[in-house]
Specification:
It contains 13 helices and 6 strands. It is α/β, with parallel strands linked by helices. It folds into 3 domains: about 110 residues, no CATH class; about 55 residues; about 200 residues, Double Stranded RNA Binding Domain (2-Layer Sandwich). Strands 1, 2, 3, 4, 5 and 6 form a 6-stranded mixed beta sheet that branches. The chain is flat. Keywords: Signal. This is Lipoprotein.
Length: about 375
């Protein structure tokens, strides 16, 4: 950079940084909140900074006028949500008050006003408006209206925790806005196997219970529906069309193993000193692999309980392959690695029982079922 312009550049750069640090630039743009924040921080570090002092005095005066005028305008409005905006305006004013109170040098320059009572009054009014809107939505007695009411009641709690009967209103709104899904008993159809779906049913109910915890959807068994006198909105059907075990297949493969530089004997030299004799050892190593495939199809369906219209239907297929490996050898075991030798210690075992294989197959299907549930009820999060 030219030596003539370098000092000028540094001076301009310093002015920009100085202006930002004192809040002057933000004040000139009408960003009073940022201007006051920077001015207060500057005066806490340097109480005699003239630029920051001017920003603080002018900024607080302009900011107070701006927010108080906005409050006057909102009070003249017919907008039912105006109290939320009034609450927000008082929030700004009280934030300025708190910031300045923590800065002794600032208190010598301005006398901030506190509006806690006014802010609390606006909060009570804003909360009541949300409660009234929620109660109005409940009168529609529909799922969508229930969710809207729940949102209104939750928003009311943001402004006031001291709302009489709010817990029961939230419960009523959530119940109204919740899709109630009946899970039909899960039958098993297998032509030649005695199987039980208890493992699958338990996993499904465990997932669905957790899935519905923070959503407008809940899953019930027939017993639950009858016990609580609940009428379902949707019906979830899960049915295994079939589950088939294939033929057990055993494959073997033999290879010759060699290892060099293995001690195969000893000899004595003419002085009677013993020496190792090195050579190559060999073994025929045979590996065995037993496999058994299990396949099946699960019919997944959710339909509307009132119209019986099918909302989603999928044929979910899966396959699980059980396998077991062991080995044998013929020859010098020193030709084998530790892993190969370990395999020769294993013995052939029979395949697991059909129920165990069915459970492994279910694990393959399980994620597909969960994916379909998540997809259908993706927009139910509270």
């Amino acid at each position: 950079m030219n030596t003539f312009y370098k000092p000028l550049f540094l001076a301009l750069f310093s002015l920009i940084i100085w202006g930002c640090a004192t809040g002057k630039n933000a004040f000139d743009k009408g960003d009073y909140a940022t201007a006051l924040d920077r001015a207060v921080n500057r005066l806490q570090a340097n109480p005699t900074n003239k630029k920051a002092q001017n920003v603080l005095m002018d900024g607080y005066r302009m900011a107070s006028q701006f927010h108080l005028k906005r409050i006057q305008q909102l009070n003249r409005s017919n907008d039912p949500l105006r109290f939320e905006s009034i609450y927000n305006e008082y929030t700004f004013l009280n934030r300025y008050y708190n910031d300045i109170q923590r800065c002794p040098a600032c208190l010598d320059l301005v006398n901030p006003s506190e509006y806690l009572v006014e802010q609390q009054e606006a909060a009570v009014m804003a909360a009541q408006v949300q409660v009234d809107m929620g109660n109005q939505a409940l009168q529609a007695n529909t799922i969508e209206a229930g969710r809207q009411a729940f949102g209104h009641f939750q928003r009311a709690l943001r402004f006031s925790n001291n709302l009489q009967g709010i817990d029961s209103l939230l419960t009523e709104a959530r119940n109204m806005g919740t899709v109630k899904v009946l899970i039909e008993p899960i039958p098993t159809h297998s032509r030649n196997l005695e199987l039980t779906n208890e493992y699958f049913a338990n996993r499904m109910f465990e997932f669905l219970d957790g899935f519905s915890r923070d959503r407008f959807v809940q899953f019930f068994s027939h017993g639950d529906m009858e016990a609580y006198d609940i009428r379902p909105d949707h019906i979830l059907s899960l049915e295994f069309d079939d589950f088939v075990l294939g033929q057990t297949l055993v494959e073997s493969k033999t290879k010759e193993l060699k290892r060099d530089s293995v001690i195969v004997g000893q000899y004595k030299d003419k002085d009677g000193v013993s020496h190792d004799v090195y050579g190559t050892v060999k073994a025929n190593f045979t590996t065995y692999r037993k496999t058994l495939a299990s396949t099946g199809i699960l019919n997944f369906e959710i339909r509307d309980a009132y119209s019986n219209q099918v909302l989603i239907q999928r044929k979910l297929g899966g396959e699980d392959i059980w396998q077991y490996e062991w080995a044998s050898f013929n020859g010098d075991e020193r030709a084998l690695t530790k892993e190969e030798l370990r395999m020769t210690k294993l013995k052939e075992v029979p395949p697991p029982a059909p129920q165990e294989l069915f459970a492994a197959f279910i694990d393959r299907i399980y994620d597909q079922v969960l994916g379909q549930v998540r997809q259908l009820y993706r927009n139910t999060r509270i």
